[in-house]
Structure formats: structure tokens, C-alpha cells
Amino acid sequence: MAASSQADSALASFMEWFTARNPGEPEFTQAVSEVAEVVVPYIAAHPEKGYAEAKILERLTEPDRVFMFRVPWMDDQGVFQVNRGYRVQINNAIGPYKGGLRFHPTVNLSVLKFLAFEQIFKNSLTTLPLGAGKGGADFDPKGKSDAEVMRFCQSFMTELCKHIGFVTDVPAGDIGVGAREIGYLFGQYKRIRGHFTGVLTGKSLQYGGSLIRPEATGYGNVYFSREAIQHVDRSLEGAVCSVSGSGNVAQYTIEKLNELGAKVVTVSDSSGFVHDPEGIDKARLAFIMALKNERRGRIKEYADEFGASFHEGQKPWGIACDYAYPSATQNEIDEDDARALIENGCKGIFEGANMPCTHAAIGLFQGAELLYAPGKASNAGGVATSGLEMSQNKLGLQWTREEVDQKLTAIMRDIHQKCVEHGSTDGSVDYVKGANIAGFEKVAQAMMSQGLV
Ligand SMILES: NC(=O)C1=CN([C@@H]2O[C@H](COP(=O)(O)OP(=O)(O)OC[C@H]3O[C@@H](n4cnc5c(N)ncnc54)[C@H](OP(=O)(O)O)[C@@H]3O)[C@@H](O)[C@H]2O)C=CC1
Ligand SMILES: O=C(O)CCC(=O)C(=O)O
């Protein structure tokens, strides 16, 4: 059999095995098939490494363990409430389990397994000793009082604290989990275990947090995009950019794009998007930060304040831009959105969110030969800076803003370089291939060295 048809049949049989084991898990299946399309042929092309016999990819898709637990709490009216909490510990070959917690009504096992799986490759790319995990709950912090969020976090941590620790599993934030939630979670961990350790990252500065961690995912994505754009001899200076979301990642993506001379014309939340052709400058971004981080309001208020247009229930991808930075949630760019971006002259997509593009959308981007960077490479700056927070906690030191930013910049440059090294053919870079192979190799080698565990 020719090598390519051998690889095709290996891929088909791997995906048949995988889907039979994970029925009804569409997000997890999507994330695994994207990786398998690259990694199965790579394994087949390198029989000398022994990865097929050692079933490395099969083992990577089977979490080490999954915790699922009841989270009972009381609302402000004195009514009992029950949510479901999770922690997926998927792989610790290169370091303690590491990855965020998501509080959102759509959280389920498929979503968390996809996020944990992506985290394996992302964390490997950071160059730091970080294994992979993800967790969360189907709890919606929106519309809840601070007291309700605190009671929920305390109940969630009362169970979670049995399974995490500074050298075993170090969670952080994700959608719906920011500085407020991390504070309540850390307080409850310390109260129950009596340990003041860096068991969570994304902590506030007064109790062991790192400078630049809040900024790191957005800044990191922009640093990565700068590398990719320079690699094709272009620049961000003067570029028109579209950003989705208005949470942590979106806010600091906008801040850094402004600093580098680009103009951001969109921002969104789950109720719709705002188009501001004048650009979201520093003052307007400060309004978004106060709106979202303090008043916890809806993005429509931005349109009312600055006379921009608000498009209820819609996504921003029909607006013409040079570069797009999806920074809200999974599958927010489908085939139609991808077509609109391409037709309007978009030259690059840099994923701030995890898996924001559907499989079909990625196919269109790759066919159109624009720059397409998967989140596991481009949004790795957040977890990388969490790794730097862990290092500072171990040393009992706090590095300056400049020191952390320099390390983040170097890490993003290094990740870009690895993508170029593993993803280049005929002068162009396939960032999906580069990120998946580079991320896989390090973990696979560690697993081979550690035997059948
Ligand atoms: N925080 C981090 O360090 C990292 C985050 N990421 C990823 O970045 C993305 C954003 O995370 P983050 O900024 O931290 O989260 P936040 O909770 O701070 O913000 C999330 C933003 O996305 C919007 N959003 C969420 N769900 C949907 C939806 N179904 N449809 C439309 N909009 C939606 C929210 O709107 P609304 O308020 O209306 O719900 C909000 O504007 C996620 O995919 C996350 O996994 C990746 C790496 C690290
Ligand atoms: O900082 C972390 O540990 C996790 C960040 C995260 O959840 C992610 O990279 O998706």
C-alpha cells in the first residue's frame, strides 16, 4: 500500500475506535480529529519512534481520570441550588495537570474533554513543565450577586480541593472565572487544607499572583500574530482588526493591538456585536473594562455611549478587516463566517479563544492561503504566564512587569518558531501541522521514557 493510503486507513481506524468510545461528545471529537489528521500520518511516517505500538495517541485521548461532583449552594433568596462540577486530569507526562476552570451553563464533559485535550499540546508548546487538565461547572455567574458567586465557589472548592495541589494539579481561570472567582476559590482551599501555596494561578498580586497574567492571553496572541505577519513581510501598523468577545482575552488583545498601531473596529458579547469604525481607542477600552469587569453590563451600552452600531444576535465576521482575533468561545466562526471574512479581504485569523473555528471554516482558510493560527499555539501565552506565576511562587519572589513581559514575548516567539520548523512546506507555514507536531513530540517522548503508565 502507498504511504499516503496507509496513513488514511490508520486515521480512519483511529477515529472509528475513538468515536465508539466517546459517543455524544461532539466538541471532544472535533478537537481530537483535528489533531489526528496531522499526528496519525506523522506517526505512520516515523515507525522508528515506536509511537504506534506504544498507543501514544490512544493514551492521550483517554484522560488519566475525571472527577464529577455535586455543587450545592444557597442563593440570596434562601433557595437551595444544585450545579454539577468537574475536573478532567488528562495528562501529566511533562508536569502537574494545568488548565483553567470554566463556569458557564454550556459546560459538560464533551466541552471540558476538548479543552483538556487541547491543553496537552498548548502546554507542551510553552516550553514549560506543564501537564494538562480542565474543569468547571454548569454554573452561570451572570446576574448573580458577589455573595452568591462566593457561596458557589466555596462549595465547588470544598470538593475540588481533594483532587488538586501545587505539585499535582493547578487550575486557573477561563470563561466566567476571573480574579473575583479565583480569590474566593483560593480562600476556601486555604481554609480547608491550611496550605498557603500556589495551588491556583491568576491570583491577585497581593497573595502570589503574577504581573501580566491578566494581560497574557491577549498580549500573547498579538505577539504571536506579529511574528506570523512579519514572517510574510507585512506589519500590524495601520491594520484594521476585528475582535470578538469583550472579556479578559478580548480586552487585552485590543490593548496590545492599539499599542502596536492597529485599529480595532469590533467587540461583542453573547447578545450581539458592536461596530465602531472610528476604532476602540484607549478611552473606549477603559469604558469596556469598567462595563465588563466592574458593572458586569452588556456590550450594547458601548454603542449607546459612543454612537457606534449594535447588531443584536449577530457575530462580527461580516465586517471587513485585515486580521481577525476570535476571543469569545468555541465554534464562533462557521463556514459562512469564514467565507465572509475571506471575501472581505481578511489576511489572517489568530485564535484567542479555544477552537473558535469549525473544521469546515479552517478548511476554507487553509484553501484560501491566509494566515491561520490555531489557539493551542496563538493563545498559549495565558497558560505560559501561569507557568511563570508557578515559578515565582516556588521561588517566593515577584518578577517585574518588564521581566514577565519579556519572558512572555520570548515564549510566543519560540512557539512561532516551532510552528515554522514543523509546519513549513514550499515556503509557506501550516500552523495547524506545526503546532500539533511540535506539541505532540515533547509529550510523546516523555511518555515513551516513562514506560506504560
Ligand atoms: N482567560 C485565559 O487566560 C484564556 C482563555 N482562553 C479562551 O478564550 C476565550 C475567552 O475567555 P475569557 O476572555 O477568559 O472569558 P471571559 O469570561 O472573560 O469572556 C468571555 C467572552 O466571550 C463571550 N461569550 C462566551 N460564550 C459565548 C457564546 N456562546 N456566544 C457569544 N459570546 C460568548 C462572553 O459574552 P457574555 O458575557 O455575554 O457571555 C464574553 O464577552 C475562551 O474560549 C477561553 O477558553 C484561552 C486561553 C487562556
Ligand atoms: O492559565 C492556565 O492554567 C489555563 C489557561 C487556559 O485555561 C487555557 O489556556 O485555555
TrEMBL record:
Gene Ontology MF annotations: glutamate dehydrogenase (NADP+) activity; nucleotide binding
Record SUPFAM superfamilies: Aminoacid dehydrogenase-like, N-terminal domain (SSF53223), NAD(P)-binding Rossmann-fold domains (SSF51735)
InterPro entries noted in UniProt: Aminoacid_DH-like_N_sf, Glu/Leu/Phe/Val/Trp_DH, Glu/Leu/Phe/Val/Trp_DH_C, Glu/Leu/Phe/Val/Trp_DH_dimer, Glu_DH, Glu_Leu_Phe_Val_DH, NAD(P)-bd_dom_sf, NAD_bind_Glu_DH
Keyword Protein biosynthesis: no
Catalytic residues, chain numbering: 134 (proton donor)
Annotated keywords: NAD, Nucleotide-binding, Oxidoreductase
Residues annotated as binding NAD(+): 217, 248
GO biological process: glutamate biosynthetic process
Statement: the UniProt record of this protein carries the keyword NAD: yes
Domain Glutamate/phenylalanine/leucine/valine/L-tryptophan dehydrogenase C-terminal: 210-451
Gene Ontology annotations for the cellular component aspect, listed alphabetically: cytosol
Binding residues for substrate: 98, 119, 122, 173, 386
CDD domains, sorted: NAD_bind_2_Glu_DH (cd05313)
Site (Important for catalysis): 174
Subunit structure of this chain's protein: Homohexamer.
Family according to the record: Belongs to the Glu/Leu/Phe/Val dehydrogenases family.
Entry protein name: Glutamate dehydrogenase
